[in-house]
Amino acid sequence: MNFHAMKAIYVFEMARTFRTIVQSIVSPVISTCLYFVVFGTAIGSRIEQVDGVAYGSFIVPGLIMLSVLMQSLTNAAFGIYFPKFMGTMYELMSAPVSPFEAVIGYVGAAATKSLMIGLIILGTAHLFVPIQILHPVWMISFLILTCVSFAMFGFIIGIWAKNFEQLNLIPMLIITPLVFLGGSFYSIDMLPPVWQKISLFNPVVYLVSGFRWSFFGSADVAVAVSLGAVGGFMLLCLGVIWWIFKTGYRLKA
Amino acid sequence: MAFKNAAEQRSVCTILADPFPAPSAFLERSMAPILSIRNLRKSYDDGAEALKGISLDIEEGEVIALLGPNGAGKTTLISTICGLVRPTAGSVTVKGFDIIDDYREVRALIGLVPQEIMLESFQKVKDAFHHSRGLFNKPRDQARVDSLLKKLSLWDKRDSQNMTLSGGMRRRVMIGKALSHEPRILFLDEPTAGVDVELRKEMWDIVSELKNDGVTIILTTHYIEEAEAIAERVGVINGGELLLMEDKDTLMRKMGSKTLRIDLQESIEAIPAALAEYELTLEGGGETLLYTYDSTEERTGITRLLASVNTSGLRIRDVQTSQSSLEDIFVNLVRD
Fold first, then answer.
1. ipTM rounded to 2 decimals
2. Which of A2, A60, A76, B162 could potentially form a cystine with A154 if both were Cys, beta carbons 3.0 to 4.6 Å apart?
3. Number of compact structural domains in chain B
């Protein structure tokens, strides 16, 4: 194992995070505060409790997921796309680094960053609304699993993208709608029956549901199903990354 | 028993099999090439062939220059050895390790300086060196990085971000990154393209210093002058083929040869018997005799040849001599 390489990639990526601290960490925190002001306080005060939880508290897990998902995705995608775009990728490709080690470095850094953001948002939310966490270990596990699997997905997008437009395409056109329709701001019980069925095809529903269960003990779908869905998604991403490095897809001539 | 590399392992095996090997067995071992390329091919999906079966052996400590026009396949060759391009067929071994099966061992031995300057804009120079060293699985070594920074005259710029440096400085950072993990083979892809005369001389000094440290250096260049100045062997690549690979001295000797061209008044069918002792060639539809001689020798044989031509009854219209240069050899090879 090339531990020095994993560390070098990780340190470099984390340095990028701290170099752009405002953009990386402050801005997601500010936008989350805005959500709390608008949804939690202004509108939330007129919404009745959901599953016995005040609306302001109810949206906390969904909001954390929303940011963590997008941050994992875009960070990992940019992290690997930029060296490709700038040409500095040659060094990684000519170094004695296995695909597995490269993924640990890049995905590890992107996941660390979004985990940090997730915890900061949780802390910020605590200032606005009362929060109880029934299953803290599961909460952290869900959070880490989501950070890692979506960082892997972002890594794949970063390798696949040929230009900046493609780089933004999937996060903007697919992930944003999925997240908003994934029950971040509501329980899918609140939807008409047809839409409840359709929602079950949205993978983000399982994420948010499982994560919310770790807070309040109530969920839209069974927790085991949520866990299976996230785990399955992670394995799928791992398989695609393995294939990318095996074939040199968009990396080698 | 621990072996440093596969080649050593093999040679030890042969020694064990034969307890009293002939001296040549030892000789062979010490002469085992550090880089061995066998029938290397690269073709793309659209059918374009970038490498058409290149074979080449390079000894440890050699400085090799690969000459060739743009698109000749020089960069493809280097990129394939370094793992950036997947070969279609053929094999490459470094110290007996296969570039694909044993990529970790191979790449640890190799440093690459690509043609284009590609650096992380916001990274500091010293961090870039540490980063490269880490990628090649070497522990952090402040002293080593510091001495490299000094050697490449980058010490004063160690805390500057890459993007604030001048073009020449950036190129030095590229070289420093490639050297940060102490490679035994260094590939320099057109190290002096677009570089001013002063920096070019500096690059040559760096190369000769590395050579003194025993590093094998393979560089590509457009400039024949560069190949002459620093290389020990010169290869010419064109159209994906290695057209020539020779000691620079042999090439220089060829350059020392001159050609005497004798244009005749009337064309002849064959070279007259009286001139058979000279190695002449008949050209231009029988109107021109060509005589190649070494201008550095004391006796060039010209006087005797001209006398013989006279007595054989041929009438001379014109006489001229020309010197072949590495440039001519190169142009002739590339044109064919």
1. 0.87
2. A76
3. 2
